[in-house]
């Protein structure tokens, strides 16, 4: 019984000492400043309730996006399982501040929206859920403007690929 108590106490002391050492060195395993800044960002509730992609983009950004060949989306032509459709986006645009995924035929168009911190490579990948065959739209906010790319993804019934 004393072995169990000693082991738990020792583990707790080692964890506490490690955390104090990291704080003292200024090297936390996670950044407090970005976490606090994210806590101050308002959740875009209206955008996530919008039924159409145009309404979601307007609620999220307040403006429209223009198509750009500098936004590269990788998505399958046929998704055998609409519950897990892999989508990724990369861009060469400078000063990217956000990337959002939308699906036009989903009951709620906005699937995900990411804030991109300064100095971060603007590459995002996700597995999204699609109700049926639809256009997938990616919107990138860069330098105060909106850029987009879209692709039709066919969702098969039953996962037979046809």
TrEMBL record:
Q: In this protein, which residues make up the domain named Ig-like SoxY?
A: 58-160
Superkingdom: Bacteria
- Any Pfam family hit: SoxY
InterPro entries the UniProt entry points to: SoxY, SoxY_sf, Sulphur_oxidation_SoxY, TAT_signal
Q: PROSITE patterns attached here?
A: TAT
NCBIfam families, sorted = SoxY_true_GGCGG (TIGR04488)
Entry protein name: Sulfur-oxidizing protein SoxY
Record organism = Bradyrhizobium algeriense
């Amino acid at each position: 019984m004393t072995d169990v108590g000693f082991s738990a106490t020792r583990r707790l002391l080692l964890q506490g000492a490690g955390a104090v050492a990291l704080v003292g060195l200024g090297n936390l395993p996670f950044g407090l400043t970005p976490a606090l800044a994210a806590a101050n960002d308002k959740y875009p509730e209206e955008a996530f309730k919008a039924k159409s992609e145009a309404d979601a983009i307007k609620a999220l950004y307040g403006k429209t996006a223009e198509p750009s060949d500098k936004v590269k989306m990788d998505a399958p032509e046929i998704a055998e399982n609409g519950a897990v459709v892999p989508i990724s986006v990369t861009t060469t645009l400078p000063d990217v501040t956000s990337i959002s995924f939308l699906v036009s035929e989903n009951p709620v168009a906005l699937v995900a929206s990411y804030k991109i911190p300064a100095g971060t490579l603007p590459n995002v990948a996700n597995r999204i859920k699609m109700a049926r065959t639809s256009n997938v739209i990616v919107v990138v906010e860069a330098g105060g403007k909106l850029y987009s790319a879209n692709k039709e993804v066919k969702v098969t019934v039953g996962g037979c690929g046809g």
